[in-house]
Amino acid sequence: MGIISIYDIIVHQPELISSIRQGYDKKNQHIRHDIRGALLTLNSSIALAETNSEQYGKCIDIMKKSTNYIKNILEEWKKYDEKDIISLKIVNVRDLLESALKTVYLPNCVDANITIIGEEKGYLDYIKMMRVISNLIKNSLESIKVKGSIELLANVNNQNITIKIKDTGKGISPDIIDRIFDPMFSTKSTGLGLGLTYVKNVVNAHGGTVSVKSEIDVGTEFTLLLPNLQSKT
Question: What predicted TM-score, i.e. pTM, was given to this entire model?
Fold first, then answer.
């Protein structure tokens, strides 16, 4: 079902796919970056489903989530200029975190846990925040060398929504931690350094802040502090 949905997207929205290939402005780079990551997740899930029948159900679920993730990105791009436009609506934060987690392939050697403190609902841009959290989860997975864990923690009250993504990966060097949100900065030879720039831009557009603390060979924790803007919707 996931593969068929991708096929439909390509057939019925060729102008979007063409723009992904040809566009070189900052906005299009972010979109290509996130779609490429989702396609890699799809490929990994397909490969696992072909070789391990016991994981078939899990893989199909990931494929569906990844396909919907791509479709939402394309639909969002079609509707908006995607500068700083935030579409706030009431969001179930647990569902947001669970959906973001399912856009990535989680190997058996990595444990992932979700904890919600306080209320489960707040006002956010669901699609943009799912892309933000998905990018942070992918970074955590890439930092875990052999085995480890990722913890997603949300604390929701009437004033703020705090979301933490914490991993037990290799950590970020103090020499570069102040640069990780800069456009085009990446420690990966094949990376464009766009994921964390998108994270910062979206959080800022919500009127929030993003911070990071890390320790080499211990892990990294990203904290998103967002105003719960229900009074403005």
Answer: 0.65
